[in-house]
Each structure stands twice: as C-alpha cells, then as structure tokens.
Amino acid sequence: MVGLGIDDTYTIERMRTLILHPEYEGEHYAWRMGDKVISTERDLIFCAADTGTYYLRFDLYSSKLQQSDLQPQGRSTGAADLQGLCPTLSHHFVVKVFDEEVAYSPYISKVLEYNPAPGQFINTMPEYEEGDNYQTMLRKAEDAIAGTNRSLISLGGWGGYVTFAFDHSVVNAPNLPDFTVEGNAFYASAGNRNGSSEPGIVMVSVDINQNGLPDDPFYELAGSEYTHSATIHQYSLTYHRTPAIHTPQPDIKNSLTDTTYILWHNNQGEQGYMYKNTFHTQDYFPLWLTDSTLTFLGTRLPNNAVDKNGKGNMWVLQPYDFGYADNHPNDSISRCSFDIEWAVTADGKPANLPCADFVRIYTGVQQQCGWIGEISTEVSHARDLNIEEY
C-alpha cells in the first residue's frame, strides 16, 4: 500500500495557502486542531495569519479499508469519533508557520483578468489606444488599481468583471471583515443615501491547484440581496457588437443618441438594447476584442435605480445594505468591507473558506437609467485589512 500522502511536518510562511490531499478515500473526514474540527472535507486548506507551531490531526473514516491494510504514519489512535464512528486511520502532523522574508503589501499586487462588458466608460477607463490588445489593457487596469494607485477602471454593464490578487493569501479572520474594495459611489447628502451606487458582486477563490491562476472555483460573497425575491441566480447575458452598418435611433429628449445601440439577450427569454448617450461618444464595445459577442454568467441583483419624477431626468441609484463593491462611499469603511465568511457554494451553502487567493468583482445590476446610462461598477482600490496600511 502507498502512504497516506500527508507528511509529519510542514513549514510555510504565514498567509500562504497549504493544500493537503489524503491518498485514501473514505465516507467521512475530519481535520482537527486541538479539540476543534476545522474541516470535514477530504482536502484541507490551511492558512494562518500568525506565526507559530500548529498541531493538527487527520481522521479518515472508511468501511472499505481496515487498519491492517494501511501503512502507519505518525502516531495513530482510534480514540476520536465522528457521529459515533471510530476513525479507520488517524494521523498527527505539525505545521510550522514563520514570518515572510519580504513584508507583504496590504494592496492589490496583480490584476489577473480584465473582462468588462460593454458600457459608456469602456475604452476610456482605462483608455484604449490603437494597437492595444488584451495584455496591454490588462496591464493598464493593473497600473490603475494596484498598490497605492486609485484610478478608476470600469467593468461596464452587467457581468463585466476584474480579477485581482494580493502578494499573499487573505486570511479569513474570525468575526472580522477581511478586505475592502473602493469605487466611486456617493450619497446625495449627509443622511441621504440616495446618490449613486452601482453595486458589484464580489467573489473569492482559493488557489487549490497552486498554479497562481484564477482557474479554481469561485464563491460568491452573499450580500444583503442574495436571497431577495427579485435576485436571479445562474443568470446569463450575451451582448452583440453593433454592426458596421447600423442606423441609430436617437431620443434627443433624454440625451440618447441611439436607443438600439448594443443588442443583448438573456437566458430568461428576454432581449433589449444598451443605449448610447450624448456624453460618451466612443465605442462602448471593448475595442481590443475581435469577438462579435460577449457572454457572462452570474447573479443578477434587483434594480436599484429609481426615476424620482417619472420624467427620466431625476435618477437616484440607491445602495444596498451590505456586501457589494461600489455600493457605499469609500469613507464608509465598514460598508465597503468584505468577510470571506460570507462565501457560499452554488447551492447557497457556506463555503467555509479559511482564506482567499483571488478576488473577482463584476457588475451585479442590469439597468438603464436614461441619460445617466447603464449601471456599471467601477473599482479603484482594494486592501487586506489583516495587514497594516501605509
């Protein structure tokens, strides 16, 4: 028989992700630190904010394996139980966590994906220049929001997204927010939140395959509207590039130069258009792309913009309570903060993530607001709250 696949000792830097995968399959698993069960998944995701020596134990429960079939590793005991069961195998091991050699930054280190939907600020935030391709636009997005920079990038209409990482894993601190995201939301006045909020859904992922790429599952942070009756999960939307030969249909009264500008259709059997307005005359479809369509999948939040006078010229974009980017002003730090504990699986169950290696943000509302244009999430900055700001 091969070994269990778990060593007796591991040594890692703090705020680094350690993935442990036992070779044997069982009906139940339990990873313990002291008397506390920290995971019941087959694989363990370990990440610690503090240095020190951590003593752990792995228990495997299997009706297919007998103790005599297994190659002993470490100290073995059958004293623990899970739901009244005795483990087939128990393995004790140690994780030694030490300080990083170079101090971590609390700010974004790398922008890994910039895939905006069409929108009135696309090709201007960041600015597209003739000859730019995906890689150059990705670099421009990174230059805008990485480190201490606070320039805005637009994600366009519903579904457009950006994915970024820090130079370390963001640890899920118990009962505390873990990171902030800034945008350009504002209140109408002190005490009046009816200003401009363009909520973006936030997702997180752990680098399970340890390849440094955001190709592992992402988990939505369940904000205040996650269970709202008007929220649509598994929503899909496709945008069509405007044909070269196209006759605009203007609405001068509402400052719109084309009400049939970019055709879209969704998986709800609906279709419509993204409008073009007089204030933004450039192409709204990402010019560095050659595809004729763009498709996005995710959660669609309820509309949050209201036409106060019914005439199309007094729009207010109301914020949701919590859990969304570009939703509250940046000085409302608590309302611009996010907790990895909010992460849920596709069926809405807690994901129980100890950390996050990647953060993804996408525009969560699909709504046209007359002369104001479409709702589009903007991002300017992010910070890990576990590390002191400078």
In summary, what is this structure?
The protein is mainly β and about 400 residues long. The protein has one helix spanning about 135-145, and strands at about 10-15, 20, 30-35, 35-40, 45, 50-60, 90-100, 110-115, 155, 160-165, 170, 180, 200-205, 220, 230-240, 255-265, 270-275, 295-300, 305, 315, 325, 335-340, 345, 355, 360-365, 380, 380-385.
Describe this structure in words.
The protein has 390 residues and is mainly β. The chain folds into two domains: 9-98, Immunoglobulin-like (Sandwich); 110-384, no CATH class. Helix content is 3%, strand content 34%. It has one helix spanning 134-145; strands at residues 9-13, 18-20, 28-33, 36-39, 44-46, 52-61, 89-98, 110-115, 153-154, 161-165, 170-171, 179-182, 200-205, 218-221, 232-240, 256-266, 271-277, 293-300, 305-307, 315-317, 324-325, 337-338, 343-344, 355-356, 358-363, 378-379, 381-384. A hairpin with a 4-residue loop joins strand 16 and strand 17.
> How many angstroms separate the termini?
53 Å
- List how many beta strands DSSP finds: 27
Q: What is the CA-based Rg, rounded?
A: 24 Å
Protein structure class: mainly beta
Q: What portion of the residues fall into strands of 2 or more residues? A: 25-35%
Mean pLDDT: 92
Into how many domains do the coordinates divide?
Answer: 2
